[in-house]
Amino acid sequence: MNWNAVLPEIALSFGILLLFFLELFLEKRHFKFLSLLGSLVALTAFICLFFVEYPAYTFFDTFYVGQLELFGKGLLYILSGLSIIALYDYFMKKDSVYGELPYLLLISTLGLSFFLSSNSLITLFVSLELSSITIYILTAMLKRDYNSKEGAFKYLLMGSVGTALFGMGSSFYYGATGTFFLTPYADSNTLFSLFILFFLSALALKISAVPFHFWTPDAYEGAPTPIVGYLATAPKLAIYFLLVKLSTLFSHLQPWLILVAILSLLSMFYANFTAYAQKSVKRLLAYSSIAHAGYFLLGIALSDKLLHAGLIFYVSVYTFATLGSFVVLSAFEKSHGFTHHILDYKGLGKDNPVLGTLLTFFLLAFIGIPPMALFVGKLNLFLGLVHAKFVPLAFAFVIASIISAGYYLKLISYLFLEEGERKYKKASVSAGESFVLLVCFIFVSLFGLFPHLLSNFIRL
């Protein structure tokens, strides 16, 4: 057994156990300490990545570590640590202190970490369910809040459908190939086509692609806002890294291309048009996430290194912009009576100039305004599509991105150009939230000005 290959996962596991036993004995007033310790566990796992010798297999070849997997895990641990730092003040202000929060989030991270390295459908299934079940719990962890429970319940029901689709697709894969290991396959037969249909549908549900998106607006609106920041970034990051691997193996088959193109086009245009009708900013960002799922799916339409590198860069910087935007929303929400209705945002940029400017920065990044890193991500994805001779999809991507600009700009205009009917107490920002916002701002701007600092780590 090659224990070196699972060194970060071992560090995470011991950190989770430590937090679990400390939470049994410490009182609620030590919640901030547990949160900071949880972020330190994620940092420890990140440091352990530098001591992993790769490429390497372990657990009977079901677990593989390569440079791409280590890069994905590094981003995952950074996002997890930042998410934990950002949540403690929100839950304390909402009187919803649960000592379990830090280690539940780390359990989800542990599942996603195994998911990134899984080389078998069995380990993929177990690791994805470990992450999903803890996210269902995290979504419901807001005391005396009906919407939180409703969102978690809907997510659980839809997630169960995804689990069934995943299991059914795996059985078809075994029937076609005689193995659960992910291996190249050239024979386009009915069994394998059914595997592509069911398996991609299961993953499309997890990344909120249309028509499997129905859980997303309710879960985003009901879940505690800092948890939404994690939910909208870490699981999706891991799944897109897996999709890049699957694209390399199966994208030469026609059913793969057809299904990916349909999911992508539906997600881009349906979500962008529907976002205009939203009255809740959290629901608006949920549809933004659905639209981005359509953008990202374009990156796995074909096995092309330039296309895949563009996708990974885009997904990586998108996660920091998304996390930053939800941290700003959670800071606003701590004001008494704030509901995330779009009218509540009128004049907030004037009353809270720093938070308003940061939210505007992240919204402009979603549009793809240079020199922010998401502009480079969109440009790389567009060039990858042109290089792969998918010009119609490339132009559909451009048109969908232009359509999306309207609802982002509408929110920005509410922040700075409108006068609010209600005045809220100036939002308080904790040291943890300030740190997370600073890191997200630096990454989104730095990788936009110097994209090679990130792209040099992307090795396919």
Question: Could you provide a short overview of the structure?
Answer:
With 460 residues, this protein is mostly helical. The protein has helices spanning 7-25, 31-48, 67-93, 101-117, 121-139, 146-177, 190-206, 215-222, 225-231, 234-250, 254-275, 281-298, 305-333, 348-351, 353-367, 373-387, 391-417, 431-449, 452-455, and strands at 56-58, 63-65.
Percent helix among the residues? over 70%
Percent strand equals under 5%
What's the total count of β strands? 2
> Main beta sheet, described?
2 strands, antiparallel
How far apart are the termini? 26 Å
Secondary structure tally, helices: 19
Based on CA inertia axes, which overall geometry fits? globular
What's the overall average pLDDT, rounded?
A: 91
Order of helices and strands: HHEEHHHHHHHHHHHHHHHHH
* Cα-atom radius of gyration: 21 Å
Strand order, biggest sheet? 1-2
- List low-confidence stretches: none
What structural class do you assign from the helix and strand content?
A: mainly alpha
The count of domains is 1
Descriptive account of the structure:
There is one protein chain. The protein has 460 residues and is mainly α. It has one domain (3-455). The protein has helices at residues 7-25, 31-48, 67-93, 101-117, 121-139, 146-177, 190-206, 215-222, 225-231, 234-250, 254-275, 281-298, 305-333, 348-351, 353-367, 373-387, 391-417, 431-449, 452-455, and strands spanning 56-58, 63-65. Strands 1-2 form a two-stranded antiparallel sheet. It is globular and about 65 Å long. The mean pLDDT is 91.
